[in-house]
């Protein structure tokens, strides 16, 4: 009997309690939290990984369902799961920061399309870089590493002792600055060439005031931007792998310790 005369199988109640942390991590994490992933698939994945976690670490759910301690335990489990997914989501914001820097300099900041990850209208260049980063994330088995870290979290942060301290929450908040730094570094090769082009166009406008900047500057910035993106794409792809590696290492260091 688990409160108010309700009865539930102990193993089923343990599985439901375990799925809270796993489901919260999948909601906040990229790839798993995409709007294109059906809710039924997320529930089945959460149940499958919950069964795996139950076999890896001993999980003891609260004795009663409708109790204050139960709600606090569920909130603690959701907080840990959301923290695990949120750190990855911060790292995946870097391509959008880079696309804003590059797109505004190239003059294609107005071009937007639907992002398959979030289902909202985002810059077209940002969507392209985001899809590329997702493919790189899957190519290095980042989704499997995320599942492994979620399962390991039951050993390092067992239920009942899962409240994150103020220092960990502060470190997670400070990690948000990494998205801006990584985005600027990702846009650095293309952004530097476009900056040099703008300086040249500015000097031409001062030397020949009669020159139509819109007729010369916009096509030149678009051409230089496309060529520089083509040339710098291998280096940008390598740095995206660095961002993925930093995000996965931050999961263990910031949340799990």
UniProtKB/TrEMBL annotation:
It is found in: Cell membrane; Bacterial flagellum basal body. Keywords: Bacterial flagellum, Cell membrane, Cell projection, Cilium, Flagellum, Membrane, Transmembrane, Transmembrane helix. NCBIfam families: fliR. The lineage of its organism: Bacteria, Pseudomonadati, Pseudomonadota, Alphaproteobacteria, Sphingomonadales. Role in flagellar biosynthesis. It comes from the Bacteria. This is Flagellar biosynthetic protein FliR. Belongs to the FliR/MopE/SpaR family.
């Amino acid at each position: 009997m688990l409160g108010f005369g309700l009865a539930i199988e102990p193993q089923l109640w343990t599985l439901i309690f375990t799925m809270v942390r796993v489901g919260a991590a999948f909601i906040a994490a990229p790839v798993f939290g995409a709007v294109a992933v059906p809710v039924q698939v997320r529930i089945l994945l959460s149940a499958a990984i919950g069964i795996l976690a139950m076999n890896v670490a001993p999980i003891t759910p609260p004795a009663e369902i409708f109790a204050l301690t139960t709600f606090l335990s569920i909130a603690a489990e959701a907080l840990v799961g959301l923290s695990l997914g949120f750190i990855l989501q911060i790292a995946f914001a870097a391509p959008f920061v880079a696309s804003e820097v590059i797109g505004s300099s190239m003059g294609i900041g107005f071009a937007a399309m639907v992002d398959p990850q979030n289902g909202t209208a985002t810059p077209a260049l940002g969507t392209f870089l985001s899809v590329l980063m997702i493919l790189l994330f899957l190519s290095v088995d980042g989704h499997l590493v995320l599942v492994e870290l979620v399962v390991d979290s039951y050993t390092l942060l067992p239920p009942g002792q899962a409240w994150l301290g103020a220092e960990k929450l502060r470190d997670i908040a400070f990690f948000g600055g990494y998205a801006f730094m990584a985005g600027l570094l990702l846009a650095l090769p293309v952004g530097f060439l476009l900056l040099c082009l703008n300086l040249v166009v500015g000097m031409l406008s001062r030397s020949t005031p009669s020159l139509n900047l819109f007729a010369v500057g916009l096509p030149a910035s678009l051409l230089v931007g496309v060529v520089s993106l083509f040339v710098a794409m291998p280096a940008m792809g390598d740095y995206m792998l660095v961002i993925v590696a930093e995000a996965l290492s931050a999961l263990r260091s910031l949340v799990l310790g």
